[in-house]
Amino acid sequence: MKPACRRLSPPLLALLLCALPLAGGAQERTNPLAGDAQAARSGEDLFGRNCQQCHNSRGKGGKGPQLIRGAWGPGGANSDAFMFQTIANGRPNTQMGGFGGSLSETEIWQIVTFLRAESQRAKAAERQRADDVPNW
Ligand code: HEC
């Protein structure tokens, strides 16, 4: 008895296998550009043009919430995939619109990469300030 998949033609099988990761949904996705300095620079530029008017320069918050501390900080509860989804789909009934139509997936990941790098910098700066306090 032949296994069922042997009856599938190779091109069809390839199509199925290639479609699987796409069907997986954004929830389990990881940032393909994580830690990439060049991507972070592109993300900074994109952030300046698309997000800064509400989230302030460098994600510090303003009309919109800050995006680099707490749950968004290093090791925080909010994953890269969650951030990607929020940017792509927006938040219904808030000023946060979806950017899935105007930014490519790569551009959204670049913005995520920038904000993650920014959160690391903010954390490091806080640690530096704490170290500067004389402990006597
Ligand atoms: C017109 C103003 C506006 C613009 C432009 C905007 N946002 Fe927002 N954003 C908001 C507001 C307001 C919220 C809070 C929505 C809510 O109440 O949940 C938000 C929420 C978010 C959140 C979720 C924050 C959280 O803690 O839940 C992320 C992530 C985010 N924005 C990223 C971005 C990025 C990245 C861009 C640019 C591509 C962008 N936003 C552009 C107003 C804006």
Helix content: 40-55%
Number of strands: 0
Estimate nothing, just give the exact number of structural domains: 1
- Helix count from the secondary structure assignment: 5
H/E element string? HHHHH
Instruction: State the CATH superfamily name.
Output: Cytochrome c-like domain
Task: Quickly list its features.
5 helices; Cytochrome_c-type_DH; 51% helix; 136 residues; Cytochrome Bc1 Complex, Chain D, domain 2
Q: What can you tell me about this protein's structure?
A:
The chain has 136 residues and is mainly alpha-helical. The protein has a single domain, classed as Cytochrome Bc1 Complex, Chain D, domain 2 (Orthogonal Bundle), CATH 1.10.760. Helix content is 51%, strand content 0%. It is built from 5 helices and no strands. The protein has helices at residues 10-23, 37-50, 52-55, 80-89, 105-132. α2 (37-50) packs across α5 (105-132) and α4 (80-89) crosses α5. It is globular and about 65 Å long. It starts with 9 loop residues before the first helix and ends with a helix. The model has no long low-confidence stretch (mean pLDDT 85). Bound molecules: heme C. The site of heme C has 18 residues, from α3 and α4. Residues 1-26 form the signal peptide. It comes from Azohydromonas lata. Keywords: Heme, Iron, Metal-binding, Signal. This is C-type cytochrome. Residues 38-119 form the Cytochrome c domain.
